[in-house]
């Protein structure tokens, strides 16, 4: 419950402060969001599996975001940024769906 | 396929399982608490990231909307000013005509007044009142739902829409049926006015029109209706209604008004009497200064674009 409150607090702060993101950082935001979502759903599944570990969560979160952003950056430098972004979104999207399916099985037994 | 299988079967980070195994080996419970500082901090960070991303990636509607509303206010203000100026032009035009009539009377040319009046009527310089027909054209009902008045799409073609060619044919038909003066949506058609299009908008005398299109034609209502309906334009109009569901209502009335064309201005002027000390050949009718005007172009000194020449864009009854 406390992490959920933290999430809501972060949302509120972000909406309230409305910080301006530098233009060069903006292409990485969608990818970072997808990567963060993946880590969050992975953590929820781990909690339900009973094997949650805070350090693993933090490391997986940060590495997900950093690696995803790096792949997009590399793609931009090589001129295939949009294709690599698509690849990242597909891979992370599949993971999110699988994790959500597992969470669903835990919660609803269906 | 290994990649796909791994991705589909084990989406969870293997790290969770390994960490759990290590903790079990060390004699600790498998899972750590979800209420550690690290987790809470990361949760706050995640929420912040979501909010910032949503805020900065959402297209900013405020800036565009502000510009649009400002443009709308400016357009409306300028339109209002245009209407005021037009009324002023009409009033000043009437004043000028009064002065002209006065000057004409004082200089003894009173017999020209009637000529000038008739020429002004033909040149669409003065507002007129009298019996006539009102023909209302509107787009087919199926195309109206997605377009408000005056809000036509800039591209594409829909067969249920009234086009400028339809209006041209109908207006020509009305002239042919004996109309003496015609206005569309309050814009008087002078002999130099053109019905054209820009994209899907209909432009009459360089002013865009919004549906419905109300064509007011002064003349003998009954005779015009009898002549118009069997004519080419009348048949064309009924076919538009039958095939494309374009709505048209033809109604006669005893008292209609058409405004004057405020854009009328002097283009050609010639002295009506013989030039002093000149023997240049000119039109005999004009030279003698008789009270019966010739119907040739350029013989009027009414100060209007008009002349009585056949209109350029509409066919007039001969």
TrEMBL record, chain A:
Belongs to the sbp family. The chain crosses the membrane at residues 27-44, 56-74, 80-101. It comes from the Bacteria. This is Small basic family protein. It is a multi-pass membrane protein. The keyword ATP-binding does not apply. Its main location: membrane. Keywords: Cell membrane, Membrane, Transmembrane, Transmembrane helix. It is found in: Cell membrane.
């Amino acid at each position: 419950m406390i992490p959920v409150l933290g999430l809501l607090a972060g949302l509120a702060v972000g909406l309230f402060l409305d910080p301006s993101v530098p233009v060069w950082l903006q292409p990485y935001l969608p990818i970072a969001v997808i990567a963060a979502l993946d880590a969050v759903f992975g953590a929820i599944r781990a909690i339900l599996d009973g094997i949650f570990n805070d350090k693993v969560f933090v490391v997986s979160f940060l590495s997900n975001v950093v690696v995803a952003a790096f792949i997009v950056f590399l793609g931009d430098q090589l001129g295939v940024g949009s294709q690599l972004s698509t690849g990242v979104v597909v891979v992370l999207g599949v993971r999110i769906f699988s994790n959500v399916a597992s969470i669903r099985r835990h919660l609803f037994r269906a | 396929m290994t990649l796909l299988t791994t991705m589909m079967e084990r989406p969870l980070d293997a790290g969770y399982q390994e960490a759990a195994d290590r903790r079990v080996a060390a004699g600790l419970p498998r899972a750590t608490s979800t209420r550690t500082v690290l987790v809470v901090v990361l949760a706050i960070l995640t929420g912040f990231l979501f909010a910032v991303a949503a805020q900065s990636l959402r297209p900013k509607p405020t800036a565009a909307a502000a510009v649009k509303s400002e443009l709308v206010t400016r357009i409306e203000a300028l339109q209002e000013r245009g209407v005021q100026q037009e009324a002023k032009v009409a009033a000043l035009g009437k004043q000028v005509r009064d002065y002209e009539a006065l000057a004409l009377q004082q200089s003894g040319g009173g017999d020209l007044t009637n000529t000038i009046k008739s020429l002004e009527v033909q040149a669409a310089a003065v507002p007129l009142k009298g019996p006539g027909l009102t023909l209302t054209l509107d787009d087919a009902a199926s195309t109206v739902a997605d377009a408000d008045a005056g809000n036509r799409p800039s591209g594409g073609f829909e067969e249920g829409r009234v086009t400028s060619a339809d209006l041209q044919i109908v207006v020509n038909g009305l002239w042919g049926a004996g109309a003496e003066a015609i206005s569309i949506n309050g814009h008087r058609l002078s002999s130099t006015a053109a019905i054209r299009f820009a994209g899907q908008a209909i432009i009459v005398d360089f002013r865009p029109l919004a549906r419905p299109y109300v064509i007011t034609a002064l003349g003998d209502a009954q005779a015009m209706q009898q002549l118009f309906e069997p004519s080419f334009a009348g048949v064309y109009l009924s076919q538009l209604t039958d095939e494309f569901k374009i709505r048209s209502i033809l109604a006669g009335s005893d008292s209609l008004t058409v405004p004057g064309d405020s854009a009328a201005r002097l283009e050609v002027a010639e002295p009506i009497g013989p030039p002093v000390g000149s023997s240049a050949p000119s039109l005999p009718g004009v030279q003698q200064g008789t009270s019966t005007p010739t119907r040739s172009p350029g013989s009027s000194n009414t100060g209007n674009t008009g002349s009585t020449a056949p209109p350029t864009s509409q066919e007039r009854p001969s």
